[in-house]
Design brief:
Peptide Methionine Sulfoxide Reductase, Chain A
């Protein structure tokens, strides 16, 4: 199991990121493409704000992607899948807590649908074919998982995964799990808005900033230049 902080420490110890490392990052992240929109989606509108929790590897980048998405009113890094007692970064990093690093997304369904959020998730926020890992991060805490909070969310997510698999959108089968959300626990404060506070950190530059550029390029009508910040939502 490779902890993200070990990877970050290795980068920090290297004054210059090698061309090979940049190439790997570019192939893995900037090579992402816009996948088809869901055939089954929720109707726009609805009563008030809604929430969904998505796990797709390191929560820093996922949180930032949705902070830049129109219609999202709050994007919070945290943990889902385990217990309150183990919702701690040190423990989650062990890979033995059943938690995944996840992001709680609060959105206005009159401005963005669940299907649109899932399309962005699968296009630029994560690679849904990577099992218990995401790019350099390995372990079940970095798994792909959609934690639904209603039967409608479950139906939409389930249908979308089946749609993308049937169309052979990816060269490999999608491994994203679907689970009813037991609870969501916000991560420690220093993880919130991490990309915005640390834009030049090597891991952020290599693996997360490209996601923001991809969001802007592939979803220009859904991109918000000024992100909703954790402390300003």
């Amino acid at each position: 199991m490779i902890a993200r902080r070990s990877f970050i420490a290795a980068l920090a110890a290297t004054p210059v990121v090698s061309a090979c490392s940049r190439s790997v990052a570019a192939d893995a992240v900037e090579g992402m493409k816009k996948v088809p929109a869901p055939a089954l989606d929720a109707k726009g509108g609805g009563a008030g704000l809604q929430k969904v929790v998505l796990a797709g590897g390191c929560f820093w980048g996922v949180q930032a992607v949705f902070a830049h998405t129109q219609g999202v009113t709050r994007s919070v890094s945290g943990y889902a899948g385990g217990t309150k007692e183990t919702a701690d970064y040190e423990m989650v990093s062990s890979g033995r807590t059943r938690h995944a690093e996840a992001v709680e997304i609060t959105f206005d369904p009159s401005k963005v649908t669940l299907g649109q959020l899932l399309q962005i998730f699968c296009s630029v926020a994560t690679d849904p074919t990577q099992l218990d890992m995401q790019f350099p991060d390995m372990g079940p805490q970095y798994r792909n998982e959609i934690f639904f909070v209603s039967d409608e969310q479950r139906r939409i997510a389930q249908a979308y995964i089946a749609q993308l698999d049937a169309a052979k959108t990816y060269p490999k089968k999608i491994v994203t799990k679907l689970s009813a959300l037991p609870a969501f626990y916000p991560a420690e404060k220093y993880h919130q808005d991490y990309l915005f506070i640390n834009p030049n950190q090597p891991y952020i530059r290599m693996y997360d900033q490209p996601k923001i550029r991809a969001l802007k390029a592939l979803f220009p009508n859904q991109f918000r230049d000024k992100p909703v910040r954790y402390n300003q939502a």
